[in-house]
Amino acid sequence: MKPNILLITVDQMRWDCLSYAGHPIVETPNLDQLARNGVHFRNAYSATPTCVPARAAIMTGMSQRSHGRVGYQEKVPWNYEHMLAGELAQVGYHTQCVGKMHVDPVRNLCGFHNVVLHDGYLHHNRFKHTNTVAESFDHCDDYLPWLRDRAGASLDLTDLGLDCNASTVARPWHLAESLHPTNWVVTQSIDFLRRRDPRKPFFHWMSFVRPHPPFDPPQAYLDLYDGLDLPDPVVGNWAKREDPELAGLNPTTFGGNVPRRRLKKAIAAYYALITHLDHQIGRFFQAMEEYGVMHNTIVLFASDHGELLGDHRLFRKALAYEGSAKVPFILSDPGDLLHLRRGTTVDNVVELRDIMPTLLDIADVPIPTSVDGKSVLPLGQNSPTVWRDYIHGEHAYGNMSHHYVTDGTAKYIWYSQTGEEQLFNLQMDPMECVNVVADGAYADQLRMWRERLIHELKGREEGYVTDGKLQTGCAVKACLNHILQ
């Protein structure tokens, strides 16, 4: 029988928030064990680092240019011919997702046999004045009815008073820990182990909403970090120092000078959510041992994007900086079925589009020609392979719309509306504190990276390249024409 496949994704987790990766504060013992039983890819990126386009990359294996989502836009149908779950279902896998999908329509199965859904608080499904009954939140979410059945019919996701994009405010979860959305994903996933078809290999996607805001960890986890001498966020010499509009006082700010006490509490809660996730993932691993499937299951762990968490006085995601665009990525093989170089770290640059071809490769399933990503399995096995030199990422983001190219050792960022350029030496400056674009010693590198971006953007419908040069001020769009038709 083919190996079982477990895909674990979390939402908005930074690449560096793993004790295995050397974080001085965050404790992630179960994820660390995953890395010891597999391979840690230290230069993994989300090319378009917000929820919808990141999930398009995961489920289709396509680059953002191919899947067409180059920014964040809701209510654009998912009509892709080849998606990960569907390809595995066709060759006999029993497939299920529990948690976040963030697709359109919200009940689109995307090839899964079953989806137990909780996308978090999605504004467009909560707006009662614009949605039909079939689109309303009560009809498209499975967690909230479950919660109300167990803890009270009047409960809602907004009871804590925290917005779903509030990256600077936090408070502890107010109900029993077993009712937290993170625990719910694991509870439902364990139930899948009970009722799956034992004659078939399974593909299970455990898709957590946290540590995406609201920052609401159970009190026991907040107590692990609250009051510790937490490291301050890094602030580059290029970052804005002033906040004349007091944007930092907005709980859902993209940037600004946030009051120090509030920021420290938010950072503590963010770390607490990650440790809570880690322990619940460990709970699922215990259940896998009990059901006898731990050692014939391949596990891939990743995040859809990061969280800036105050770096450079910026918050949330979408931007190209490491805190936002770089993600954890671990391929683990507890039963040593794949003969990975267990306990090693790979430096090659990988992207979320590589998840689908990797898992299809593991299942010995043909990879559709629509897939742009590549299987990372040869990298994990130290087998001969030709790998990419860099990846191109981007995000439509108003006046901060941008493109970036990186190989994990350097990063070039171009802001398409202003023409601003940034170049970072990630080997010497891994947190991007010094923009070397004006340093003559980097002139040749700057030219090389700019030419790489020009190559990526040639022929784009927005008109980013004219006469071989980057064109500033082109109208940006969140979705390309071919998926809007």
TrEMBL record:
Keywords assigned: Hydrolase, Metal-binding
Domain Sulfatase N-terminal: 3-365
GO cellular component: cytoplasm
Keyword Thylakoid attributed: no
PROSITE patterns, per the entry: SULFATASE_2
Protein family: Belongs to the sulfatase family.
InterPro entries hit by this protein: Alkaline_phosphatase_core_sf, Sulfatase_CS, Sulfatase_N
UniProt cross-references to Pfam families, sorted A to Z: Sulfatase
The organism of origin for this protein: Paenibacillus selenitireducens
Protein name: Arylsulfatase
GO molecular function per UniProt: metal ion binding; sulfuric ester hydrolase activity
Signal peptide location: none
